[in-house]
Write a structure and sequence with these properties.
The complex is a heterodimer.
Chain A: E1 4-7, E2 10-14, E3 19-25, E4 32-38, E5 44-51, E6 56-59, E7 62-67, E8 72-77, E9 86-93, E10 100-102, E11 106-111
Chain B: E1 4-7, E2 10-13, E3 19-25, E4 31-37, E5 44-50, E6 53-56, E7 64-67, E8 73-78, E9 87-96, E10 102-107, E11 111-115
Parallel strand pairs in B: 2-11
Antiparallel strand pairs in B: 1-3, 3-8, 4-5, 4-9, 5-6, 7-8, 9-10, 9-11
Classes of the chains: A mainly beta, B mainly beta.
Chain lengths: 112, 116
């Protein structure tokens, strides 16, 4: 069974600081890895999808890396803004499985 | 825009009164999922459909049922809601290209269920 861990559970930074969110997983036979953002009381918004054959993906201020051999993914958010305050979840299905294994999330607060 | 739409956004139901939540998608993805998310917890998979094939999670209570009449629509039925069923219910889809490249998961905005 895949276990996904996110550290830290919560993070508070001043505006403009770069954010580093960590995700680790126990089984490297993943189909892909996805980072989501969730605002309070809302659904999940996909931020980045990294295919198992890729090492990283970038979108604007966001960059996510994937190292299957060490079972780690890292989400970098450059020059954080108060609007980046949310919970960030990483999730991944195993190869030949459709079920997403979620981490518990990192709740980010960016102080103005 | 292609998307996953859930209705209603908020649902209040009485204890024991059946309730149905709906989900539709325009992505033409072949897999649809229902997740339950309680406060400050990760989403928990209830069941999923691969095309018309229904797959129930072992720990999903019998109180929860699902229907998928066609590719676009999927319904979550809670036969006798209890106070413990109050949660956010998330619908999601996933698909892949003919070459096997994953499109990842797309989630709807969720339905917040309150049981009174």
């Amino acid at each position: 069974k895949q276990e996904v861990t996110q550290i830290p559970a919560a993070l508070s930074v001043p505006e403009g600081e770069n954010l580093v969110l960590n995700c680790s997983f126990t089984d490297s036979a993943i189909y892909n890895l996805q980072w989501f953002r969730q605002d309070p009381g809302k659904g999940l918004t996909s931020l980045l999808l990294i295919q198992s054959s890729q090492r990283e993906q970038t979108s604007g201020r966001l960059n996510a890396s994937l190292d299957k051999s060490s079972g780690r993914s890292t989400l970098y958010i450059a020059a954080s803004q108060p609007g980046d305050s949310a919970t960030y979840l990483c999730a991944s299905p195993l190869v030949n499985d459709y079920k997403l294994s979620f981490g518990a999330g990192t709740t980010v607060t960016v102080r103005a | 825009d292609a998307m996953v739409i859930q209705n209603p956004r908020y649902q209040v139901t009485q204890f024991g009164k059946p309730v149905t939540l709906s989900c539709s998608q325009t992505l033409n993805h072949n897999v649809m999922y229902w997740y339950q998310q309680k406060s400050s917890q990760a989403p928990k998979l209830l069941f999923h459909y691969y095309d018309k094939d229904f797959n129930n999670e072992a720990d999903t209570p019998d109180n929860f049922q699902s229907r998928r009449p066609n590719t676009s629509f999927c319904f979550l039925d809670i036969r006798s809601p209890g106070l413990g069923d109050a949660a956010m219910y998330l619908c999601a889809t996933s698909g892949s290209s003919l070459g096997g490249r994953s499109y990842g998961y797309t989630f709807g905005s969720g339905t917040r269920l309150t049981v009174v």
